[in-house]
Amino acid sequence: MDLDVFVSAHRAEWDRLDALLRRQRRLTGAEADELVALYQRTATHLSLIQSSAPDPQLTGRLSQLVARARGAVTGTRRASWRDVTRFLTHGFPAAVYRSRHWWVPTALVSTLVGVVLGWWIGTHPEVQSSIAAPSELRRLTRPGGEYETYYSSHPAASFAAQVWTNNAQAAAMCLVLGVFLGLPVLWILSQNMLNLGVGIGLMSSAGRLDTFLGLILPHGLLELTAVFVAAGTGLRLGWTLIDPGPHSRRTALAEEGRAALGMAIGLALILFVSGAIEGFVTPSGLPTWARVGIGIAAELAFLAYVYVLGGRAVRAGDTGDVDESERSATLPTAA
User: Fold this and answer.
1) How far is CA 18 from CA 63, 111, 134, in A?
2) Where are the alpha helices (DSSP H) in 75-207?
3) For 96-135, what is each residue's pLDDT tens digit?
4) What is the per-residue burial (b if ≥16 Cβ within 10 Å, else e) of 67-80?
5) CA–CA separation, 22 vs 64, rounded Å?
6) Which of 102, 118, 235, 257 is the most exposed place for a label (fewest CB within 10 A)?
7) Rg (CA), the chain
């Protein structure tokens, strides 16, 4: 593409679009139709320039022009409670459901790794001694030791808030850092499974695995599932860079990135629930069966939420992405 010739041929259209956008008075019907047509043509021009002859200054100018025109054509809207309801009943569960082929294997493999690590640590005293001195291990695993008192070491409300913040940050990191080919996500997962494996191994070697599971299952089922969903989504985002499918890499990454952003908000709400369970239920005086039952009920409720509401939303065409009217226009890249 000869950029100078292209600019000379279409500059008048861009200037006319800019003039219509600057009009203070209400546009006539003919002017409104002209604005829509010029917006569509200018958006196509921008796409052609970006793909064939990228020029930073011209691209910046046309990007601003297209954004202003898009706002004028589509209008502005404010978020409402209807949007929140739709996100919770359609967008978020649909995004989680769509990514199930990533997070379910991630959950299964990660759990297996954690269990194997726990078995290895629990059956090898030399590994235990490399983790900490015998006196410190006894302090961790004895009745009333640190593994037990950890959950009641702070007031329930502040502890729940701290747990929620930490877990939400871990989930957000998985989602955001997935764009780096998923490698940071694997590191975060490995650290989580290492911590789980150490707890299983040390408590099982002390003959107190039942106590450990009674403490971790009430909140851990939902908490780990949220982390696995975030990790699976992050890995999917990383894979999109390698294999964008039928779309361009930019379009595919934008679609998955928008869904991942919505996922971060939804998972923060799920982790708020698991944090509340960890702060108020795990250290409570309820019998073990009751505490574990609450954790199982929360996990089953989340899975039903994803597979029933999410599956229904996906079958209805929802992808977890924002509405089409709110996306940047995807336009042809060839004349």
Assistant:
1) 12, 57, 75
2) 81-86, 92-98, 100-122, 125-131, 134-141, 146-149, 156-177, 183-205
3) 999 999 999 999 999 999 999 999 999 999 999 999 898 9
4) eebbebeeeeeeee
5) 13
6) 257
7) 26
pLDDT tens per residue, range 166-221:
888 888 888 888 888 888 999 999 999 999 999 999 999 999 999 999 999 999 99
For tokens 């990533």, name the residue.
102
Buried b (16+ CB within 10 A) or exposed e, 109-145: ebeebbeebbeebbeeeebbeeeeeeeebeebbeeeb
To 10 degrees, what angle do helices 3-21 and 56-74 make?
Answer: 30
Q: How far apart are CA 6 and CA 14, in angstroms?
A: 12
Name the pTM for this structure: 0.72
> Is the separation of the CB atoms in 227 and 170 below 8 Å?
yes
DSSP symbols for 269-313: HHHHHHHHIIIIITTSSS-HHHHHHHHHHHHHHHHHIIIIIIHHH
Residue 4 burial (10 A CB sphere; 0-12, 13-18, 19+) = exposed
Find out whether 181 and 234 touch, Cβ atoms under 8 Å.
Answer: no
* Distance separating alpha carbons of residues 36 and 32, to the nearest angstrom: 6
Tell me the two tokens of residue 3: 């950029």
In the three-class reduction of DSSP (H, G, I as helix; E, B as strand; rest coil), residue 99 is classed as: coil
Q: Dihedral sign for Cα 319, 325, 326, 329, please.
A: positive
Place of tokens 């939420």: 305
